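Retro notes, item 3 of 5
We never archived the inputs for the iron/sulfur cluster complex last cycle. Fixing that now. Sequence and ligand:
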Amino acid sequence: MKLLSTGNPKILKGEKQGYMTYILHLAPADVSGYNTCPKATAGCKAACLNTAGRGGMFKRGESTNVIQEARKRKTRLFFENRDVFLAILEDDICKAIKQAEKKGLIPVFRLNGTSDLAWEKYGIIQKFPNVQFYDYTKILGRKVNGLANYHLTFSAADGNDADVRKAIAQGYNVATVFGIKKNSPMPKTYEGLPVFNGDDSDLRFLDPKGVVVGLYAKGKAKKDTSGFVKFPVIMMKAA
Ligand code: SF4
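Structure as it came back at the time:
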């Protein structure tokens, strides 16, 4: 079983900056029967990137595909045979490092491509102290202070405004999905912080500190009415 993948369009933007991101996609929330996203909200589950791109292409009359089934298999392995899973992951990371270096790129890793697990608990980040890992999370209070090679960006969603404010107070950047057209200008500020365009690349560990990381609504998020997607222009008019 191969756990890591590359090749979504945002990752390709990172290549131009000299980085190759390897992503682990598990089945999000409780899709596999195990919960990989303890702080998932109704809105984020509905808009989840799990069904973006080829992961969301289903044959007529079918509600799953090989990509979804592979993500469920990986997730079950993580919960049912943790040692085997972590051994494969470690091996995949070693291979990825060699592959990226052959291409002259810096390998970086995002283990929560479509999950929100506290990877600091499983020792894998600690095994590669000279390698950069990064993730988005909705979980406050993760114990990552001693891990200089693990960068977290907090994720805003429907109903987690109080956690967003706490995350900002704790010094996290906060990723926020805005309901504005792709390529239109991001709002200048949001929640009192400058907005940084997070769609120029996926390399969150390079972002300036003290910003809201603005993302354009994509796929199902474009139709969100839950509060997961924020509408800054409308709010500015109303203010
Ligand atoms: S927490 Fe993230 S990965 Fe999990 S369901 Fe929500 S958007 Fe998807």
